[in-house]
Amino acid sequence: METPTDLKELVRTKYGEIAQQSHEQNASSCCGAGGCSTVDYTIFAEDYTKLNGYVADADLALGCGVPTEFAQIHEGQTVVDLGSGAGNDAFVARAITGNTGKVIGIDMTPEMIAKARENADKLGFNNVEFRHGDIENIPIAANSADVIISNCVLNLVPDKQRAFTEMFRILKPGGHFSVSDIVLRGELPEPLRKDAEMYAGCVSGAIQESEYLHLLQEAGFSNITVQKARPVLLPDDILSAYLTPDEIANMNARGQGIISVTVYGEKK
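RESULT FIELD:
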């Protein structure tokens, strides 16, 4: 059985490979880094190209939502992006918080940090910072952030309770988060879930939506709200290997399966 350390190293290795590729290479590959025998990290991605602050070199098509759309960021605020990758969401957040604000990206993959810093340097941004660190031990002082965002990353963290507790710690009183992530609704057959993990890397580590929301509550957050939810559509050949057509239709009708959600919560 893989340990949390093993899982982190696997994520670090795969995203290190992805950092070396462009948006076009990731999006045109059916399985992201490594070819079709591994994982498609791009099937959840949404279109960022029309957003203010969009930086093409920072967009690796790895998200499963647009958390900045719901994050209620205001000018002059300090925003922390957990799992910031090449800087895609951080740069969009900077366009909202403006020159008087600050954006801090946290990522555990050295290659992603290097790419994000390179992108920031090209743009001459002096209020966007990228720090190498672990979401289970965020390298930011307590009560520092007005807003936390994250995009399709927290489900990959082995100790979600620790990650959510760290989020609560670094937020200022009155601060809030808006994170896009992958959760499960209803029980999936274990072989189907394993196949889904092989097909789509961001499914790995996904837990039931109800448990996800409960862990956020346990961390101390209030006014927890699902701001957006949409099903993740897996290919028919994966579904049909484990479910009959009627079971597939029933699962879809009930809104069960793998779900991309954007979740909001506040620190009182």
